[in-house]
Design brief:
17% of the residues lie in helices and 29% in strands. The protein is an alpha/beta fold. A five-stranded mixed beta sheet has the order 8-5-6-7-9, with helices on one face. Strands 1-2 form a two-stranded antiparallel ribbon. The protein has a two-stranded antiparallel ribbon with strand order 3-4. Strand 6, helix 2 and strand 7 form a beta-alpha-beta unit.
């Protein structure tokens, strides 16, 4: 798990405390600059910076390579086409320069075999295979993809 350390316990014991739990270490985007983007950071960016989270039924970011992230969104009523660019730009500001960002409109985001649907996924290339290309535009819904 990924957490933020808290202040010393007022009881005087020397054990560490937690101020917040940010998510699991496997559910983070690692930027080329070494920053870790947690699910909470992504949700805050979509809600407060992009101001479109109320128009999304579901969303999931996937780090498809060391310098590439795809945000998949299931639109809710009221979603407008201009919001695709707002999402791409907002996620780009969050992950920083040097990361290609694309947005895919999809009909649904599937559950994992574990029964979970993480907000952030990281695709790890298998040994001996190249990392996925940053210009990947695969889209299972057949709808247009906003290039990043």
């Amino acid at each position: 798990d990924w957490a933020i350390g808290g202040a010393s316990c007022p009881c005087g014991r020397g054990f560490p405390t937690l101020a917040a739990i940010e998510g699991r270490s496997g559910e983070m985007i690692e930027t080329p600059e070494g920053r870790a983007i947690t699910p909470a950071m992504l949700t805050n960016q979509l809600a407060f910076e992009c101001e479109v989270v109320g128009f999304l039924s579901e969303y999931q970011a996937e780090q498809t390579g060391p310098d590439a992230v795809t945000l998949r969104v299931v639109p809710a009523p009221g979603f407008r086409t201009w919001m695709v660019e707002a999402l791409r730009e907002g996620l780009g500001r969050l992950v920083g320069p040097g990361v290609a960002v694309s947005v895919e409109i999809v009909d649904r985001i599937p559950w994992e075999p574990s029964g979970k649907r993480p907000i952030i996924k990281t695709r790890k290339p298998s040994a001996g295979s190249p990392a996925p290309s940053a210009d990947r535009t695969g889209n299972s819904s057949g709808r247009p993809v906003a290039p990043g």
